[in-house]
Amino acid sequence: MSETYQAIQLQQFAESFRAGARIVDLDLNRPGPGELRVRNHYCGINGIFDTQIARNAVDYVKIKLPTLTGVEAVGVIESVGEGVEGFVPGDAVVTTRFPGGYRTLNLAPVSHFVKVPQATREWLTLASTGVSAAMALEHIGAVQDGEVVAVSAAAGGLGHLIVQLAVLRGCHVVAVCGGREKGDFVRSLGAHRVIDYRSESVADVLAAEYPDKLDVAIDTVSGTIFDAFLDNVAPHGRVVVGGAAADLEGKPEIVTQPRIAHKLYYKGASVRGFMNGLLTDHWPAAREKVFSLYESGRLNITFDDQEFLGLDGVFDAVERLLSGHSMGKVVADLR
């Protein structure tokens, strides 16, 4: 009898990830030439992406059913294929390539993996979300020391790292999040002004305290928060679109207002899309930066206080992230 491993497989398109996906047993094969076989220890959760994959609503990923799922995982190499150099069994590696995440074992080309010191959730977060944070703030946002930086979903996995990276650059950070606990959390990271969107109007606060002063505004929410960032962008400022959580239902809000050009032209400002998958050539430098900051104790990683175990836990973790109650990086333990 051949050995098997388990993975979450999307078997049908559905409104939710849980409704469309199932845990399946798959044959355990040897790595071919140029491949690694990796036993995953932790996987990172990307609930919005997972939901949109389940709905076949991710334009840049062509889905052919059935498909395995998940993007990011860290684990230990079990075996290497012919011609592989620089990797040996026992090495800890991270992948950030779909669909390498939601599975107990990953068999993929060596180019899909990056070596890390340990197969821990910290190194998973650094190599995935840490890289994304650096790319959004520094490459797309082109942040300069001492600028005013606004961040939505600031207490989330991505947001809490962007806040810290901006603080390290001497920036004045405006953090948008929901609730007292999250507000206290981002203040502890160095945020200078916290806007609790549950009790304050983001638009009113920015108009009163930061009119035309946002040099970099990184938004993963869309809707009225994006509008408020855009309205208060500084001359030569950059509004970075890194997601649209408010439009998760696939029905973006239709608004009637002056064209965006009128808000940008006279300020020389810009709106920039951040799609990390298009920036792979820049990942190595970003990894080197965030790895160094973490090892020197200048960058901290916070994980959501909910524990998720095994592939069964992935479904709960996706829903936890979508609930808006999570704080910090959400991961599942696959060991």
UniProtKB/TrEMBL annotation:
Organism's domain of life? Bacteria
| Listed SUPFAM superfamilies | GroES-like (SSF50129), NAD(P)-binding Rossmann-fold domains (SSF51735)
Please give the InterPro entries that the UniProt record associates with this protein: ADH-like_C, ADH-like_N, ER, GroES-like_sf, NAD(P)-bd_dom_sf, Zn-ADH-like_protein
**A Pfam family this chain is assigned to:** ADH_zinc_N
- Tell me the GO molecular function terms: oxidoreductase activity
Where does the Enoyl reductase (ER) domain lie? Answer: 20-332
PANTHER family from the xrefs? PROSTAGLANDIN REDUCTASE 3 (PTHR43677:SF3), SHORT-CHAIN DEHYDROGENASE/REDUCTASE (PTHR43677)
Q: Can you name this protein?
A: Enoyl reductase (ER) domain-containing protein
Q: Which organism is it from?
A: Sphingobium boeckii
